[in-house]
Amino acid sequence: MARWEPNARERLVVAALDLFAEQGYDATTVRQIADRAGLTRTTFFRHFPDKREVLFAGQDTHARLLSEAIGTAPGAAGPLEAVGAGLDALAASFPAGRRDFGARLLAVVAHHPELRERAAFKHAGLAGAMAEALRTRGVPEPSASLAAELGARAFDTAYARWTAPDNAEPLGLLAGEALTELRDAAAALA
Amino acid sequence: MARWEPNARERLVVAALDLFAEQGYDATTVRQIADRAGLTRTTFFRHFPDKREVLFAGQDTHARLLSEAIGTAPGAAGPLEAVGAGLDALAASFPAGRRDFGARLLAVVAHHPELRERAAFKHAGLAGAMAEALRTRGVPEPSASLAAELGARAFDTAYARWTAPDNAEPLGLLAGEALTELRDAAAALA
Predict the structure, then answer these.
(1) Considering CB atoms only, which of B118, B143, B157 is closest to A189?
(2) Which member of B123, B146, B157 has the closest CB to residue A182?
(3) ipTM of the complex, rounded to two decimals
(4) Residues annotated as DNA-binding region (chains A, B) (predicted)?
Protein backbone atom coordinates (compact mmCIF):
# COMPACT_ATOMS: atom_id res chain seq x y z
CA MET A 1 0.00 0.00 0.00
CA ALA A 2 1.57 3.29 -1.08
CA ARG A 3 2.21 5.86 1.61
CA TRP A 4 0.84 9.34 1.05
CA GLU A 5 3.83 11.54 0.36
CA PRO A 6 2.93 15.21 0.72
CA ASN A 7 3.95 17.27 -2.33
CA ALA A 8 5.90 14.31 -3.71
CA ARG A 9 5.50 15.49 -7.30
CA GLU A 10 6.67 19.02 -6.60
CA ARG A 11 9.56 17.79 -4.44
CA LEU A 12 10.73 15.50 -7.24
CA VAL A 13 10.59 18.29 -9.80
CA VAL A 14 12.62 20.65 -7.61
CA ALA A 15 15.15 17.92 -6.73
CA ALA A 16 15.56 16.99 -10.41
CA LEU A 17 16.16 20.56 -11.51
CA ASP A 18 18.64 21.14 -8.68
CA LEU A 19 20.62 18.05 -9.64
CA PHE A 20 20.51 18.77 -13.38
CA ALA A 21 21.86 22.26 -12.68
CA GLU A 22 24.51 21.06 -10.22
CA GLN A 23 25.95 18.01 -11.94
CA GLY A 24 24.40 17.93 -15.41
CA TYR A 25 21.39 16.16 -16.88
CA ASP A 26 23.25 13.11 -18.18
CA ALA A 27 25.01 12.41 -14.90
CA THR A 28 21.81 12.51 -12.86
CA THR A 29 19.94 9.28 -12.12
CA VAL A 30 16.37 8.69 -11.01
CA ARG A 31 17.72 7.27 -7.75
CA GLN A 32 19.62 10.49 -7.05
CA ILE A 33 16.51 12.55 -7.74
CA ALA A 34 14.41 10.40 -5.42
CA ASP A 35 17.11 10.51 -2.70
CA ARG A 36 17.38 14.28 -2.91
CA ALA A 37 13.61 14.56 -2.56
CA GLY A 38 13.61 12.14 0.37
CA LEU A 39 11.47 9.69 -1.61
CA THR A 40 11.87 6.28 -3.21
CA ARG A 41 12.42 5.31 -6.84
CA THR A 42 9.01 3.64 -6.70
CA THR A 43 7.41 6.94 -5.77
CA PHE A 44 9.32 8.62 -8.60
CA PHE A 45 7.98 6.16 -11.15
CA ARG A 46 4.47 6.58 -9.77
CA HIS A 47 4.66 10.19 -10.97
CA PHE A 48 6.95 10.15 -14.01
CA PRO A 49 8.01 7.60 -16.65
CA ASP A 50 11.61 8.86 -16.72
CA LYS A 51 13.87 11.72 -15.65
CA ARG A 52 13.24 13.73 -18.78
CA GLU A 53 9.50 14.00 -18.17
CA VAL A 54 10.03 15.54 -14.75
CA LEU A 55 10.69 18.94 -16.27
CA PHE A 56 7.57 18.80 -18.45
CA ALA A 57 5.21 17.59 -15.77
CA GLY A 58 2.78 20.49 -16.17
CA GLN A 59 2.00 19.96 -19.86
CA ASP A 60 -1.42 18.32 -19.46
CA THR A 61 -2.54 20.93 -16.94
CA HIS A 62 -1.30 23.74 -19.15
CA ALA A 63 -3.12 22.34 -22.18
CA ARG A 64 -6.34 22.04 -20.18
CA LEU A 65 -6.12 25.60 -18.85
CA LEU A 66 -5.60 26.95 -22.37
CA SER A 67 -8.41 24.86 -23.87
CA GLU A 68 -10.95 25.72 -21.18
CA ALA A 69 -10.30 29.45 -21.32
CA ILE A 70 -10.45 29.49 -25.12
CA GLY A 71 -13.64 27.45 -25.01
CA THR A 72 -15.34 29.80 -22.55
CA ALA A 73 -14.19 33.08 -24.11
CA PRO A 74 -17.11 35.32 -25.19
CA GLY A 75 -18.70 34.21 -28.44
CA ALA A 76 -17.87 37.53 -30.07
CA ALA A 77 -14.15 37.15 -29.33
CA GLY A 78 -11.98 36.68 -32.39
CA PRO A 79 -9.38 33.87 -32.56
CA LEU A 80 -6.52 35.94 -31.13
CA GLU A 81 -8.72 37.36 -28.38
CA ALA A 82 -9.71 33.83 -27.38
CA VAL A 83 -6.03 32.82 -27.44
CA GLY A 84 -5.28 35.84 -25.25
CA ALA A 85 -7.86 34.61 -22.73
CA GLY A 86 -6.12 31.24 -22.77
CA LEU A 87 -2.73 32.82 -22.09
CA ASP A 88 -4.23 34.84 -19.22
CA ALA A 89 -5.54 31.66 -17.61
CA LEU A 90 -2.24 29.84 -18.09
CA ALA A 91 -0.17 32.76 -16.78
CA ALA A 92 -2.38 32.99 -13.67
CA SER A 93 -1.37 29.43 -12.78
CA PHE A 94 2.29 30.43 -12.34
CA PRO A 95 2.93 31.87 -8.87
CA ALA A 96 5.39 34.79 -8.77
CA GLY A 97 7.63 32.63 -6.59
CA ARG A 98 8.21 30.31 -9.54
CA ARG A 99 10.29 32.85 -11.45
CA ASP A 100 13.64 31.63 -10.15
CA PHE A 101 12.67 28.02 -10.87
CA GLY A 102 11.65 29.06 -14.38
CA ALA A 103 14.97 30.75 -15.04
CA ARG A 104 16.90 27.64 -14.00
CA LEU A 105 14.55 25.43 -16.01
CA LEU A 106 15.17 27.42 -19.20
CA ALA A 107 18.93 27.30 -18.62
CA VAL A 108 18.96 23.52 -18.18
CA VAL A 109 16.72 22.92 -21.21
CA ALA A 110 18.84 25.21 -23.39
CA HIS A 111 21.96 23.14 -22.64
CA HIS A 112 20.58 19.72 -23.56
CA PRO A 113 19.40 18.77 -27.07
CA GLU A 114 17.26 15.98 -25.59
CA LEU A 115 15.42 18.51 -23.44
CA ARG A 116 15.17 21.07 -26.23
CA GLU A 117 13.55 18.38 -28.35
CA ARG A 118 11.05 17.62 -25.58
CA ALA A 119 10.38 21.37 -25.22
CA ALA A 120 9.61 21.62 -28.94
CA PHE A 121 7.14 18.76 -28.53
CA LYS A 122 5.50 20.51 -25.58
CA HIS A 123 5.27 23.69 -27.66
CA ALA A 124 3.58 21.71 -30.45
CA GLY A 125 1.30 20.00 -27.94
CA LEU A 126 0.10 23.25 -26.38
CA ALA A 127 -0.38 24.79 -29.82
CA GLY A 128 -2.35 21.71 -30.85
CA ALA A 129 -4.61 21.98 -27.80
CA MET A 130 -5.29 25.65 -28.56
CA ALA A 131 -5.96 24.91 -32.23
CA GLU A 132 -8.46 22.20 -31.27
CA ALA A 133 -10.25 24.58 -28.89
CA LEU A 134 -10.39 27.22 -31.64
CA ARG A 135 -11.78 24.76 -34.20
CA THR A 136 -14.46 23.86 -31.65
CA ARG A 137 -15.34 27.58 -31.64
CA GLY A 138 -15.78 27.37 -35.41
CA VAL A 139 -12.44 28.90 -36.44
CA PRO A 140 -11.41 27.26 -39.74
CA GLU A 141 -7.96 25.98 -40.70
CA PRO A 142 -5.31 27.20 -41.21
CA SER A 143 -6.45 30.18 -39.08
CA ALA A 144 -6.99 28.04 -35.99
CA SER A 145 -3.52 26.48 -36.08
CA LEU A 146 -1.88 29.79 -36.93
CA ALA A 147 -3.60 31.66 -34.08
CA ALA A 148 -2.65 28.80 -31.75
CA GLU A 149 0.98 28.97 -32.89
CA LEU A 150 1.06 32.71 -32.22
CA GLY A 151 -0.28 31.96 -28.74
CA ALA A 152 2.33 29.30 -28.03
CA ARG A 153 5.11 31.59 -29.27
CA ALA A 154 3.78 34.51 -27.25
CA PHE A 155 3.85 32.37 -24.12
CA ASP A 156 7.40 31.14 -24.77
CA THR A 157 8.56 34.72 -25.29
CA ALA A 158 6.73 35.98 -22.22
CA TYR A 159 8.10 33.16 -20.05
CA ALA A 160 11.67 34.00 -21.08
CA ARG A 161 11.11 37.69 -20.33
CA TRP A 162 9.37 36.93 -17.04
CA THR A 163 12.30 34.87 -15.78
CA ALA A 164 14.93 37.42 -16.84
CA PRO A 165 16.85 38.79 -13.82
CA ASP A 166 15.77 42.41 -14.28
CA ASN A 167 12.08 41.75 -14.95
CA ALA A 168 9.42 43.19 -12.67
CA GLU A 169 6.34 42.65 -14.85
CA PRO A 170 3.79 39.89 -14.24
CA LEU A 171 3.66 36.95 -16.64
CA GLY A 172 0.12 37.66 -17.85
CA LEU A 173 0.99 41.21 -18.89
CA LEU A 174 4.11 40.01 -20.71
CA ALA A 175 2.07 37.34 -22.53
CA GLY A 176 -0.42 39.94 -23.72
CA GLU A 177 2.40 42.19 -24.94
CA ALA A 178 4.12 39.34 -26.76
CA LEU A 179 0.87 38.33 -28.45
CA THR A 180 0.33 41.92 -29.61
CA GLU A 181 3.87 42.02 -31.02
CA LEU A 182 3.27 38.80 -32.93
CA ARG A 183 -0.09 40.03 -34.24
CA ASP A 184 1.59 43.22 -35.50
CA ALA A 185 4.38 41.18 -37.08
CA ALA A 186 1.79 38.96 -38.79
CA ALA A 187 0.00 42.03 -40.14
CA ALA A 188 3.26 43.47 -41.47
CA LEU A 189 4.27 40.18 -43.11
CA ALA A 190 0.92 39.70 -44.79
CA MET B 1 39.23 -0.43 -43.89
CA ALA B 2 35.58 0.23 -44.69
CA ARG B 3 34.25 -1.06 -47.98
CA TRP B 4 32.51 1.41 -50.24
CA GLU B 5 28.83 0.50 -50.13
CA PRO B 6 26.94 2.12 -53.01
CA ASN B 7 23.86 4.02 -51.83
CA ALA B 8 24.22 2.58 -48.34
CA ARG B 9 22.45 5.52 -46.75
CA GLU B 10 19.46 5.39 -49.07
CA ARG B 11 19.23 1.60 -48.80
CA LEU B 12 19.18 1.82 -45.01
CA VAL B 13 16.45 4.46 -45.06
CA VAL B 14 14.25 2.41 -47.38
CA ALA B 15 14.87 -0.80 -45.40
CA ALA B 16 14.02 0.93 -42.12
CA LEU B 17 10.79 2.39 -43.42
CA ASP B 18 9.76 -0.96 -44.91
CA LEU B 19 10.36 -2.75 -41.61
CA PHE B 20 8.68 -0.06 -39.50
CA ALA B 21 5.61 -0.31 -41.74
CA GLU B 22 5.60 -4.12 -41.81
CA GLN B 23 6.28 -5.03 -38.19
CA GLY B 24 6.14 -1.76 -36.26
CA TYR B 25 8.78 0.69 -35.12
CA ASP B 26 9.33 -0.76 -31.65
CA ALA B 27 9.81 -4.32 -32.90
CA THR B 28 12.43 -3.32 -35.47
CA THR B 29 16.12 -3.53 -34.58
CA VAL B 30 19.15 -1.93 -36.17
CA ARG B 31 20.38 -5.41 -37.07
CA GLN B 32 17.17 -6.15 -38.97
CA ILE B 33 17.44 -2.86 -40.85
CA ALA B 34 21.03 -3.57 -41.80
CA ASP B 35 20.17 -7.16 -42.84
CA ARG B 36 17.29 -5.98 -45.01
CA ALA B 37 19.57 -3.46 -46.70
CA GLY B 38 22.25 -6.13 -47.22
CA LEU B 39 24.66 -4.18 -45.01
CA THR B 40 26.27 -4.53 -41.59
CA ARG B 41 25.39 -2.92 -38.27
CA THR B 42 28.75 -1.18 -38.46
CA THR B 43 27.75 0.42 -41.73
CA PHE B 44 24.42 1.45 -40.19
CA PHE B 45 26.16 3.21 -37.31
CA ARG B 46 28.54 4.91 -39.72
CA HIS B 47 25.48 6.71 -41.12
CA PHE B 48 23.04 7.04 -38.20
CA PRO B 49 23.29 7.16 -34.38
CA ASP B 50 20.10 5.09 -33.90
CA LYS B 51 17.04 3.75 -35.70
CA ARG B 52 14.98 6.85 -35.01
CA GLU B 53 17.34 9.17 -36.85
CA VAL B 54 17.09 7.12 -40.04
CA LEU B 55 13.75 8.74 -40.91
CA PHE B 56 15.08 12.26 -40.36
CA ALA B 57 18.30 11.83 -42.25
CA GLY B 58 17.65 14.72 -44.61
CA GLN B 59 17.30 17.43 -41.99
CA ASP B 60 20.73 19.03 -42.37
CA THR B 61 20.47 19.05 -46.16
CA HIS B 62 16.97 20.51 -45.99
CA ALA B 63 18.07 23.25 -43.60
CA ARG B 64 20.99 24.13 -45.89
CA LEU B 65 18.79 24.29 -49.00
CA LEU B 66 16.34 26.61 -47.23
CA SER B 67 19.06 28.86 -45.81
CA GLU B 68 20.96 29.20 -49.07
CA ALA B 69 17.89 30.04 -51.12
CA ILE B 70 16.68 32.57 -48.56
CA GLY B 71 20.16 34.08 -48.42
CA THR B 72 20.42 34.46 -52.19
CA ALA B 73 16.86 35.72 -52.82
CA PRO B 74 16.77 39.18 -54.48
CA GLY B 75 17.46 41.99 -52.03
CA ALA B 76 14.05 43.52 -52.73
CA ALA B 77 12.21 40.31 -51.77
CA GLY B 78 10.16 40.58 -48.59
CA PRO B 79 10.45 37.97 -45.82
CA LEU B 80 7.68 35.73 -47.17
CA GLU B 81 8.99 35.98 -50.73
CA ALA B 82 12.41 34.90 -49.50
CA VAL B 83 10.80 32.04 -47.59
CA GLY B 84 8.94 31.10 -50.76
CA ALA B 85 12.27 30.90 -52.60
CA GLY B 86 13.52 28.62 -49.86
CA LEU B 87 10.52 26.33 -50.20
CA ASP B 88 11.00 26.19 -53.97
CA ALA B 89 14.59 25.05 -53.51
CA LEU B 90 13.64 22.47 -50.91
CA ALA B 91 10.74 21.14 -52.98
CA ALA B 92 12.99 20.78 -56.02
CA SER B 93 15.17 18.36 -54.05
CA PHE B 94 12.32 15.83 -53.76
CA PRO B 95 12.07 13.63 -56.85
CA ALA B 96 8.52 12.79 -57.94
CA GLY B 97 9.36 9.14 -57.33
CA ARG B 98 9.63 9.86 -53.63
CA ARG B 99 5.88 10.44 -53.21
CA ASP B 100 5.07 6.89 -52.20
CA PHE B 101 7.96 6.84 -49.77
CA GLY B 102 6.70 10.12 -48.32
CA ALA B 103 3.20 8.77 -47.81
CA ARG B 104 4.51 5.75 -45.92
CA LEU B 105 6.87 7.95 -43.90
CA LEU B 106 4.02 10.20 -42.74
CA ALA B 107 1.93 7.15 -41.79
CA VAL B 108 4.71 5.62 -39.69
CA VAL B 109 5.53 8.91 -37.96
CA ALA B 110 1.85 9.56 -37.18
CA HIS B 111 1.60 6.25 -35.33
CA HIS B 112 4.56 6.68 -32.99
CA PRO B 113 4.78 9.43 -30.35
CA GLU B 114 8.58 9.09 -30.33
CA LEU B 115 8.69 9.84 -34.06
CA ARG B 116 6.11 12.63 -33.82
CA GLU B 117 8.31 14.22 -31.20
CA ARG B 118 11.32 13.98 -33.48
CA ALA B 119 9.26 15.43 -36.34
CA ALA B 120 8.29 18.41 -34.15
CA PHE B 121 12.00 18.95 -33.45
CA LYS B 122 12.78 18.78 -37.17
CA HIS B 123 10.01 21.31 -37.84
CA ALA B 124 11.52 23.62 -35.20
CA GLY B 125 15.00 23.07 -36.63
CA LEU B 126 14.01 23.97 -40.18
CA ALA B 127 12.05 26.99 -38.93
CA GLY B 128 15.11 28.01 -36.92
CA ALA B 129 17.38 27.75 -39.97
CA MET B 130 14.98 29.90 -42.01
CA ALA B 131 14.68 32.47 -39.21
CA GLU B 132 18.46 32.73 -38.99
CA ALA B 133 18.72 33.24 -42.76
CA LEU B 134 16.04 35.95 -42.59
CA ARG B 135 17.78 37.74 -39.71
CA THR B 136 20.95 37.72 -41.80
CA ARG B 137 18.91 39.53 -44.47
CA GLY B 138 18.05 42.16 -41.85
CA VAL B 139 14.54 40.99 -41.00
CA PRO B 140 13.93 41.83 -37.32
CA GLU B 141 12.33 39.61 -34.68
CA PRO B 142 9.64 38.48 -34.20
CA SER B 143 8.99 38.87 -37.95
CA ALA B 144 11.87 36.60 -38.93
CA SER B 145 10.75 33.73 -36.70
CA LEU B 146 7.13 34.18 -37.67
CA ALA B 147 7.83 34.18 -41.41
CA ALA B 148 10.03 31.10 -40.89
CA GLU B 149 7.25 29.35 -38.99
CA LEU B 150 4.80 30.07 -41.81
CA GLY B 151 7.32 28.56 -44.20
CA ALA B 152 7.79 25.41 -42.11
CA ARG B 153 4.02 25.00 -41.78
CA ALA B 154 3.50 25.58 -45.48
CA PHE B 155 6.00 22.86 -46.28
CA ASP B 156 4.42 20.39 -43.85
CA THR B 157 1.00 21.06 -45.37
CA ALA B 158 2.31 20.80 -48.91
CA TYR B 159 4.15 17.55 -48.18
CA ALA B 160 0.96 15.97 -46.78
CA ARG B 161 -1.02 17.10 -49.85
CA TRP B 162 1.72 15.97 -52.24
CA THR B 163 1.75 12.46 -50.81
CA ALA B 164 -2.06 12.11 -50.81
CA PRO B 165 -3.21 9.28 -53.14
CA ASP B 166 -5.22 11.51 -55.48
CA ASN B 167 -2.67 14.29 -55.84
CA ALA B 168 -1.23 15.17 -59.24
CA GLU B 169 0.36 18.54 -58.39
CA PRO B 170 4.10 19.06 -57.94
CA LEU B 171 5.44 19.72 -54.44
CA GLY B 172 6.75 23.20 -55.24
CA LEU B 173 3.37 24.38 -56.49
CA LEU B 174 1.65 22.97 -53.41
CA ALA B 175 4.17 24.69 -51.13
CA GLY B 176 3.52 28.04 -52.80
CA GLU B 177 -0.24 27.56 -52.43
CA ALA B 178 0.07 26.60 -48.76
CA LEU B 179 2.26 29.63 -48.05
CA THR B 180 -0.32 31.90 -49.70
CA GLU B 181 -3.09 30.37 -47.61
CA LEU B 182 -1.09 30.96 -44.44
CA ARG B 183 -0.29 34.54 -45.45
CA ASP B 184 -3.99 35.18 -46.03
CA ALA B 185 -4.86 33.58 -42.69
CA ALA B 186 -2.26 35.78 -40.98
CA ALA B 187 -3.74 38.88 -42.61
CA ALA B 188 -7.24 37.91 -41.49
CA LEU B 189 -6.12 37.18 -37.92
CA ALA B 190 -4.22 40.44 -37.59
Answers:
(1) B143
(2) B146
(3) 0.89
(4) 29-48
